[in-house]
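quick q for whoever's on today - can somebody do inverse folding on this one?? i tried earlier but teh output was garbage lol. C-alpha cells:
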C-alpha cells in the first residue's frame, strides 16, 4: 500500500470529509491542500475569479514538498488536482502516490457547495473547475452519491 494518498476532485466533491475519515482509518496525518494556498490565491477565488496555472504553481510546489516530507510515515491529502500536469507536479520525486478520485455530477456538487458554510470558493467557480478537469486514468474512481463511510470502506478494500 502506498504511503501517500491523495483524495482528489472538484470543490464540493467531499475530499475533506473522505480524507479525514480515511486518515483516521489508516492512522496517517491528514492535510487539506486548501490550507496551502497563498493569500493572493484565496483572495482571487473569494472574489469569484478562477485561478490560472501560474497562480497554482506556488501552491503545487508546497504540496510537492509536503508529500516529500511525509514519504516515510505517509499522509492523506485532500486536493483538487484537476489536471494531469498538477498531479505530476505534486508527485514530483515521490515514488508512488495513490490517487482517489471522487466523481460526481455538476448538479449534485453544486447542491453540496450551496449548502456548505465557511469556504472561500464561491459556487460560481464550480463550472471553471469542471471546465479544466482532466479525469485521471490512473486513479481509484468513486461516485460520490454514497455515504462517506461506505466510500471509505471501498477505498480501504482497494488499498
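ok took a stab at it. sequence:
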Amino acid at each position: 500500500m502506498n504511503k501517500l494518498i491523495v483524495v482528489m476532485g472538484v470543490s464540493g466533491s467531499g475530499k475533506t470529509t473522505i480524507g479525514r475519515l480515511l486518515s483516521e482509518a489508516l492512522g496517517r496525518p491528514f492535510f487539506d491542500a486548501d490550507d496551502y494556498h497563498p493569500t493572493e490565491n484565496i483572495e482571487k477565488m473569494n472574489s469569484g475569479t478562477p485561478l490560472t496555472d501560474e497562480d497554482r504553481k506556488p501552491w503545487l510546489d508546497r504540496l510537492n514538498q509536503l508529500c516529500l516530507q511525509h514519504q516515510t510515515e505517509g499522509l492523506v491529502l485532500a486536493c483538487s488536482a484537476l489536471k494531469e500536469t498538477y498531479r505530476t507536479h505534486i508527485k514530483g520525486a515521490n515514488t508512488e502516490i495513490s490517487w482517489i478520485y471522487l466523481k460526481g455530477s455538476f448538479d449534485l456538487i453544486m447542491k453540496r457547495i450551496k449548502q456548505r458554510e465557511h469556504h472561500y470558493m464561491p459556487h460560481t467557480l464550480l463550472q471553471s473547475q469542471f471546465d479544466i478537469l482532466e479525469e485521471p486514468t490512473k486513479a481509484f474512481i468513486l461516485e460520490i452519491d454514497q455515504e462517506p463511510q461506505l466510500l471509505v470502506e471501498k477505498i480501504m478494500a482497494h488499498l
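fwiw The chain has a mean pLDDT of 92. also DSSP finds seven helices and five strands in the chain. so keep that in mind when u check it
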